[in-house]
Amino acid sequence: MSNGSAFVKDLHFAGTAIWQVLLASVVLGAGLPVIFALGVRSLAWGSAREAGDGAPARPGNPLGKVLAVVLFAVVLYILAIGIYYIIVGGHGKELDFNGIWPSQVAKK
How confident is the model at residue 67 (pLDDT cuts 50, 70, 90)? Predict the structure, then answer.
């Protein structure tokens, strides 16, 4: 194998790693706060609102509360997976995603 071919191979691996890090940072750095913000907005949509002129409060939409619970559950799940990933990595293992909850396997 020539020296130039090894350089191209290394460059490809570096480029792949950069895209993986970029994707993870966009999803977790911007996506998770957006999901949380949508949960807060849904919770506000689901709560009763008072009219400013002394009229009785309008009832909130129950779908807003259900949607808020689902969105908050997604945020908590992602946070739990992140903490679990850190803990498993500290014990010399890695995660295997074969279902909803990942399992620990020995590093390859």
Answer: very high
- Report which of residues 18 and 64 the model is more confident about: 64
Q: Which helix (H) or strand (E) holds 12?
A: helix 3-26
Rounded-to-integer distance, Cα 1 and Cα 22, Å? 31
The DSSP code for 108 is: -
**Cross-strand partners of 4:** none
**Chain centroid to CA 85:** 13
Distance CA 16, CA 68 (A): 36
- Strands annotated E in the chain: 93-96, 103-106
* Sequence-distant (≥ 6) Cβ neighbours of residue 46 within 8 angstroms: 60, 61, 62, 63, 64, 65, 66, 67, 68
